[in-house]
C-alpha cells in the first residue's frame, strides 16, 4: 500500500497510532481502532492512541480476529503499516487462548484443568513464581489440575505473566428465578429493548454457552445500562446479586425492576446500611460490602456472596469496584459475572483485574454513534477559564503543592460565572457539581438552589430528586454524590465548578448526567469552570481525554 492522503491514521513501530482529526476518514478510523487501542492524548489536531497487550486481548476475547485488527489499521493508514507492528499484533493476539481453563471430567479428581498450548510453554509457566503455586497435579506434559477455588487467582496470574486464559470451565447453576421483561411499563407506555441493548445482553449470555456469561458491557451514561442488566437477568433466569455504588442507585434499580419486569415486590430485597435482607434479586452497595470497624478487622458483610445460590452477579459501575471486592470476586469464578460501565478507565490502574476477574470487554458502542441514532443527547462542551484576583493568585503562588489545587478549584470568581450561566440558561434544567463542601454550600446559598451532599439523608435526596423530575425545582447543587446513578432524565445543563484532579472517569460520569435524550430533541450543555494560570488547567486537559476519545470537542473561553 502506498501513501493515501485522505486516510487518518499513522501507525508507528512503538505500537502508537496517530489520528489526524481533520482527515476525511477520521470518524470511521476512530471507531475502527476503538476496540483494540487506548487513547493517550488528544490535543487539537493529532490524537495519540496506544495498542497495549490488554487492549488487544480485550479485542480478541470479544471475538475480533487478528486479521480484523490488522485490516482496520491498513484500511485507514496514511502510510504502510510497519511489518513489525503486524507481526507484534499477531504475536500478542495469539497469546490469548494459549492457556485454557476447563472443568475436569474425572470423577476422582473434581475441579479444573489448565490446558497449555505446547510443552515448552507448559514448562515456562510451571516455573513462573506467580503461576506455579496455583498449579496442582500435573496430568500430562501440557495439562495441570487446578483447585476450583483458585480459578480467579490463576487467571490474574496468567494475565500478569502475559498469557491470558480462555476460561471455558462454565458455571454452576444458581437457584431458579422467573423473570420476564414487560411489553409495557406499569404506566402503560410501550417498552422494547433498543437494538444495542439486546445485542449487548445476547453477546454477554451467548445462549448459555460456556464461553459466555462473564464480561463487561461499556455503554454511555443515559444509554440504559440498567436495562441491559435486566435483559441479562431475563436470559440467565437465576437468582441475581446486583452490586452498585450508592443507595440512590439501589433505589433506581428497584424502581426499574418493578416498572419493566414482572418481578413481584417480594422477589427484590435491599442489602444496605438501612436494611439487610436478601431475596431472589438482592440489591447491595459496595459501601456496605467493604464496611469494617477498623483497618485490621474483617469485612463484616462478605457473607452476602454466599447468602444465596446466586446464578448471576451484576457489578454496576464496574470501573469503581473497590479493591477488596476484587479479592472475593476471585473466589466467585463459577458464578456468571456482568460488569456495567460507561468507561473501563480506572484511576487505580486495575483494568487487568477487571479483565481477569469480571471478564473481558464484550460490547462497546461509541458515544457519538448512539448520539447520531438519537439514543443519547448531543452535547456542547465548553471550558471557561477564569482569572483569580491578584491577591488570590499570590496566595496560590506561595502555597504548598498540596494546597495549590484546592485554592484554584475554589476560586471565588467562579460563583459570578455560575450566576451568569444560570441567567443564560434560564428555562433549562441545571445541575451544578463540585468537589468541595464549603464551595458548593456557598453556591447553593447564593443561587437559592437545593443542595445534595453526602450528609443529606436518603429520604431528603429522594424528595429533591423527585421534585426535580416533576419540574418543581429547576436546578440542584451536588457534591460528588451527583457523579453516579442519578435518574434525572430532564437535566440538560451541567456546570462543573470543581473536580477530582485529572479524573477522566469522573468527566465521563458527569457528562453522562445530562445525556438522556430530550423530549424536544435539544442538545445538552456541559460547562467546566477552570482557574486561569493554575494547575487546574493541566488537570482539566487530562479530564477532557475521555470525551475527546468519544468524539466531543471543547469550546474554550478565557475571561478577562
Q: How many domains would you count in the coordinates?
A: 4
Record the strand order, biggest sheet.
11-12-10-13-14-9-15
How many distinct beta strands?
A: 22
Helix content: 25-40%
Mean pLDDT: 91
* CATH superfamily heading of the largest domain: P-loop containing nucleotide triphosphate hydrolases
Share of residues in strands: 15-25%
CATH architecture of the largest domain: 3-Layer(aba) Sandwich
Number of separate helices: 20
Instruction: Please outline the major beta sheet.
Output: 7 strands, parallel
SS content category? alpha/beta
Overall 3D form: globular
Radius of gyration: 25 Å
CATH fold field value of the largest domain: Rossmann fold
State the end-to-end CA separation. 51 Å
CATH class category of the largest domain: Alpha Beta
The parts where pLDDT drops under 50 for at least 5 residues are: none
List keywords for this structure.
7-stranded parallel β-sheet; Alpha-Beta Plaits; Rossmann fold; alpha/beta; 4 domains; 560 residues; 20 helices
List the helices and strands and how they pair.
Elements lengths: L8 E3 L4 E5 L5 H8 L4 E4 L4 E5 L2 H9 L4 H11 L6 H13 L3 E5 L8 E5 L2 H8 L16 E4 L4 H10 L4 E3 L27 H11 L8 E5 L6 H12 L3 E5 L2 H14 L7 E4 L9 E5 H4 L22 E5 L6 H7 L6 E6 L9 H8 L2 E4 L2 H6 L6 E8 L3 H9 L2 H9 L3 H12 L5 E4 L3 H11 L3 E2 L5 H12 L5 E4 L14 E4 L7 H9 L11 E8 L3 H15 L4 E5 L2
Parallel strand pairs: 5-8, 9-14, 9-15, 10-12, 10-13, 11-12, 13-14, 16-21, 16-22, 17-19, 17-20, 18-19, 20-21
Antiparallel strand pairs: 1-2, 2-4, 3-4, 5-6, 6-7
Helix pairs in contact: 1-3, 2-4, 3-4, 6-12, 7-8, 14-15, 19-20
Amino acid at each position: 500500500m502506498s501513501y493515501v492522503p485522505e486516510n487518518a491514521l499513522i501507525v508507528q513501530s512503538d505500537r502508537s497510532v496517530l489520528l489526524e482529526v481533520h482527515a476525511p476518514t477520521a470518524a470511521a478510523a476512530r471507531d475502527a481502532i476503538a476496540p483494540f487501542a487506548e487513547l493517550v492524548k488528544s490535543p487539537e489536531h493529532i490524537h495519540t492512541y496506544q495498542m497495549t497487550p490488554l487492549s488487544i486481548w480485550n479485542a480478541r476475547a470479544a471475538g475480533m480476529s487478528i486479521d480484523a485488527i490488522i485490516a482496520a489499521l491498513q484500511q485507514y493508514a496514511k502510510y504502510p503499516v510497519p511489518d513489525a507492528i503486524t507481526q507484534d499484533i499477531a504475536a500478542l493476539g495469539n497469546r490469548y487462548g494459549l492457556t485454557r481453563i476447563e472443568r475436569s471430567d474425572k470423577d476422582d479428581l473434581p475441579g479444573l484443568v489448565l490446558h497449555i498450548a505446547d510443552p515448552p510453554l507448559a514448562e515456562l509457566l510451571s516455573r513462573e513464581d506467580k503461576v506455579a503455586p496455583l498449579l496442582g497435579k500435573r496430568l500430562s506434559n501440557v495439562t495441570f489440575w487446578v483447585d476450583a477455588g483458585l480459578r480467579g487467582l490463576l487467571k490474574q496470574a496468567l494475565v500478569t505473566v502475559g498469557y491470558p486464559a480462555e476460561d471455558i470451565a462454565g458455571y454452576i447453576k444458581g437457584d431458579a428465578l422467573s423473570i420476564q421483561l414487560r411489553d409495557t411499563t406499569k404506566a402503560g407506555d410501550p417498552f422494547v429493548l433498543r437494538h444495542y441493548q439486546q445485542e449487548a445482553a445476547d453477546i454477554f449470555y451467548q445462549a448459555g454457552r460456556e464461553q459466555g456469561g462473564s464480561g463487561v458491557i461499556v455503554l454511555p451514561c443515559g444509554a440504559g445500562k440498567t436495562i441491559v442488566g435486566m435483559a441479562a437477568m431475563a436470559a440467565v433466569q437465576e437468582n441475581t446479586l446486583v452490586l452498585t455504588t450508592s443507595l440512590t442507585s439501589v433505589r433506581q434499580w428497584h424502581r426499574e425492576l418493578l416498572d419493566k419486569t414482572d418481578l413481584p415486590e417480594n422477589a427484590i430485597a435491599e442489602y444496605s446500611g438501612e436494611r439487610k435482607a436478601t431475596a431472589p434479586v438482592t440489591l447491595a452497595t459496595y459501601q456496605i460490602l467493604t464496611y469494617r470497624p477498623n483497618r485490621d478487622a474483617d469485612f463484616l458483610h462478605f457473607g452476602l456472596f454466599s447468602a444465596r445460590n446466586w446464578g448471576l452477579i451484576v457489578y454496576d459501575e464496574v470501573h469503581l469496584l473497590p479493591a477488596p471486592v476484587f479479592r472475593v470476586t476471585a473466589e466467585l469464578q463459577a458464578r456468571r459475572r456482568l460488569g456495567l460501565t460507561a468507561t473501563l478507565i480506572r484511576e487505580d490502574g486495575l483494568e487487568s483485574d477487571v479483565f481477569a476477574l469480571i471478564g473481558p470487554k464484550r460490547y462497546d458502542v461509541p458515544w457519538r454513534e448512539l448520539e447520531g441514532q438519537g439514543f443519547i443527547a448531543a452535547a456542547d462542551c465548553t471550558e471557561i477559564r477564569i482569572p483569580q484576583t491578584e491577591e488570590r493568585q499570590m496566595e496560590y503562588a506561595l502555597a504548598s503543592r498540596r494546597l495549590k489545587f484546592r485554592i484554584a478549584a475554589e476560586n471565588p470568581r467562579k460563583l459570578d460565572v455560575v450566576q451568569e450561566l444560570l441567567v443564560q440558561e434560564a428555562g433549562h434544567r441545571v445541575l451544578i457539581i463540585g468537589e468541595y463542601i464549603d464551595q458548593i454550600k456557598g453556591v447553593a446559598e447564593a443561587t437559592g438552589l437545593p443542595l445534595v451532599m453526602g450528609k443529606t439523608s436518603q429520604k431528603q435526596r429522594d424528595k429533591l430528586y423527585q421534585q426535580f423530575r416533576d419540574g418543581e425545582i429547576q436546578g440542584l447543587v451536588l457534591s460528588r454524590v451527583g457523579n453516579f446513578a442519578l435518574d434525572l432524565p430532564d437535566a440538560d445543563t451541567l456546570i462543573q465548578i470543581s473536580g477530582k484532579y485529572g479524573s477522566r472517569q469522573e468527566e465521563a460520569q458527569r457528562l453522562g448526567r445530562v445525556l438522556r435524550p430530550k423530549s424536544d430533541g435539544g442538545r445538552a450543555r456541559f460547562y467546566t469552570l477552570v482557574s486561569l494560570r493554575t494547575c487546574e488547567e493541566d488537570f482539566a486537559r487530562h479530564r477532557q481525554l475521555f470525551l475527546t476519545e468519544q468524539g466531543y470537542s471543547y469550546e474554550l473561553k478565557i475571561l478577562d
